[in-house]
Amino acid sequence: MILTQQLILGLLVGGLYGLAAAGLSLTFGVLRVLNVAHGELLMLGGYGTFWLFTLWQIDPFVSLFGVGPAMFALGLILYWALFQFVVKAHEEARIKNSLLIGFGLTLVLHTLAIRFWTADERAVTTAYAGAVLWLGGYAIPLVRLSSLVLAFAVLTALHLFLARARWGRAIRATAEDWEAAALMGIPVGKTYLLAFALGTALAGIAGGLVSISYSISPSIGMEWTLKALIVVVLAGLGSLFGSFAGGILLGLAEATSVVFLGGPYREVVGLILFLIVLIVRPQGLFGGRG
Amino acid sequence: MRLLTAGILLAAGCAALPMISARNDLLNLGVQIFLAVALAQSWNLLGGYAGQINLGHAAFFGLGALVTRALWVGGAPLLLSLASGALVAAACGCLIGMPAFRLRGAYFAIGTLAFSEILRITTGNLMPEISTIPARALAVYSIVPRYYLTLVLAVVSVTVVALLVHSRVGLGIQAVREDEAAAEATGVGAFRHKLLALALSTAMAGLTGGAFAYYHVSYYPQHTFSPAWTFDAVLISFIGGVGTVHGPVLGALFYVILKEVLALQLVELHLLIFGALFILVVLFLPGGLVEAWSRARGLIAHRD
Known about the structure:
The structure holds 2 protein chains of 2 kinds.
Chain A: H1 2-31, H2 38-56, H3 60-86, H4 91-117, E1 132-135, E2 138-141, H5 142-164, H6 166-176, H7 178-183, H8 188-213, H9 220-235, H10 240-261, H11 266-280
Antiparallel strand pairs in A: 1-2
Helix pairs in contact in A: 1-5, 1-8, 1-9, 1-10, 2-3, 2-4, 2-8, 2-9, 3-8, 5-6, 5-8, 6-8, 9-10, 9-11, 10-11
Chain B: H1 2-20, H2 24-49, H3 57-73, H4 78-100, H5 107-126, E1 131-132, H6 135-139, H7 143-166, H8 168-178, H9 180-185, H10 190-215, E2 218-219, H11 227-240, H12 247-266, H13 270-284, H14 288-303
Antiparallel strand pairs in B: 1-2
Helix pairs in contact in B: 1-7, 2-7, 2-10, 2-11, 2-12, 3-4, 3-5, 3-10, 4-10, 7-8, 7-10, 8-10, 11-12
């Protein structure tokens, strides 16, 4: 009974884990840079939604249409200012430098967020925030269900873009082999720029959904970066829906642990799972390129 | 040679300070700087010389602090407590390193990041109360032995790295950083050398954490696992000059003193400045202050 209820909640939060991971997996898969400030970008998206709601009473689900493009623009700026210098290096140095720059970026964004929004926990509380759908004795919070559906819709749209559109195919070709892609006349630099901005927009949308269904504070960045990393490790690279499934898997694992170990160890369970996968089945990690 | 002389003079000057001045704020600042030197040097050994990015250095600092504090408060001799802390930190370091070093890329960095978060959350859950030095120890608390202990620690950490760099093993470690395949081809075991650098680095971080536990009167155990310690170590190494012996010393002086000044005026915002400075250094001045200095000298020499 309690387990089922927790599993439902785990499923709902898992979709957001998947969305957060999809952005990270996209930038890592295409640019071969690992942006450990991904969680901080998510946090910024959350505050964007929070601001639009508090200052202008814009419905949070509507404001995602503003937050997404705004975060896309931020992604363009970040790539132009920082990451374009990173991708000039060879693969080993790319990963190393991106880790360091992302690490510095977490410090900058975290401090800025405290400055702008204080260290308090915030959440977007709409009139319909408490609405619950009862299904056979189990409670399903409507806002979280909508978030899950939206997360799935965003990933589907992105999937279609990558599969069909000209630039989407350019992104996939670059992810597979950037040198061959360059020889085929694909502008690799612009493709990188687009992929990074898309990853940032995904983080922003995920953050907006987090601020609606859960809560945000300047310190959630690290937590969400780790969630996204765990999911990427569980699911491997390359498939958006794989990330979504991995996210749901993590959500369910956490939910199970809440029932058997109690709430405080929720975060630890995912991390231990992560270390075990890292030790036992590292080929699942990052597509096994090592 | 001039660096060696400068280092000896600096250490001797620091050692003489408590005899000249008994100002507590000055001695406390000294302890901060020495801890920063040792912590940054421990990160530099692995990050600068072996080329392995540890994003969870706080885990090993925290483990050292945790073990040392528990044993020392429990009545064990200080040196034994410190050694145990270092040992536990190094053992855990190898535990993470053994699987992660068999693979390249980001595995080690994110493995250590996850490890430090596990420890931070678990310590917060298990030990939510503040840890304070017991009354009998507090009654005889004096800053001077803390000052000397951390000074010795800083000197030892610099000496270890300086000796290691020119040793056979140290050259092997650097060869692995430059090109793993080439190192393996010439008979330098990459895995063995990386693991050795990691063990030394984490032991040193554990010792620094232990010294912190001996120095600080009261703190939350969770605090020693805070990512802020990792930030400090990485920032100081890079601002000073990663992969050099004297870089972390310069970085620690620069960082701790500037932090004191900026924190007074800007409170939290000083982190913004350091974060931005760090990103700029990584992108445009990967050799830090050391490189800036040699470039400036080159410019002046060129003009003559």
